[in-house]
Amino acid sequence: MTDRLPDSPASRTDVDIATGVLIGIHGGSVTDAIDELFTTARNHRVSLFELSRTLITVAEGRDIERSSTSDAVYAVWGSALGRRGAEATFGSVTDSSVV
Questions:
Q1: pTM, 2 dp
Q2: What is the pLDDT of residues 74-85, one digit of tens each?
């Protein structure tokens, strides 16, 4: 759980959390994940911060309004995240295979 409020502006914290989400999906390094975020934001012409916030929201399995940013998230990471988001990708915290 994070301290950010659902309606607060996207921030550097969101970039850090989204980086962790990508590492969880693909493995790899922090640098690779940050590069992927920057590249995706540039290629889809969306804000890095909003892309990060949207990726987190989708990974959490929460509903999100359709936008160019959500379209980018689903286009790039949708199959890895699935509809249920983080739970489908990372498993339950109580899952012994994860611990």
A1: 0.74
A2: 999 998 987 544
